[in-house]
Amino acid sequence: MSTVKSILNLVKTDHAHVKQAYENYISSENNLEEQNRWANEFRWELARIIVAEELVVYPAFEKHLGDEGRRIAHEDRAEHHKIKELLKKLETKSVSDPDYRATFDTAKDFLMYHIAGEEENDYIKLENAITAEENDSIARSYERTKMFVPTRHVGDTLKIITLNEEQIESYVDDLNKSKSKIRFIHEYQRNNTINILDTTL
Length: 201
Known about the structure:
- By secondary structure, the protein is mainly α.
- The chain folds into 2 domains: 7-162; 164-201.
- Helix content is 81%, strand content 0%.
- It contains 6 helices and no strands.
- The chain has helices spanning 7-27, 32-91, 100-129, 132-147, 154-161, 165-192.
- It is elongated and about 50 Å long.
């Protein structure tokens, strides 16, 4: 029997990964290549979290917490908007730019404020209002949605988070269908041992 998942625990783990990417950037101060690597990791991981939260978690706030959930979701979306703007600003800069560190620090500091509100309030209220089965379902949906942010090319990822929720949902749905086709093709190849690499998806 599979372990029941907790959305709060998953998000805390993801937040920790983002924080660690920032710390690794700081500790790579004299190595521009490493700084660039960790700055990209920070933005990519954060973008995946944003997409999954906006498509899965914030609707769950609204569904299970009523008026309070709608207020929480509205405030968190507004904070995400500010984070997205800071991510876009970082995207236009190089880690070698004199003001890159200051911009990165601003993004990190606001993110820490946002994360504290989520981990210490929002997600706790959600978990207190739902069953273990509902929690597990939300957590697994969150994980699946993160997987559909398809690339570590940060520019492509940031394009996704600039879309509105309906556009993101449509994008993820289309990608989900495409990945299902890819899985079908791979399974067909294994079972029939023929080459269908030229199949158009």
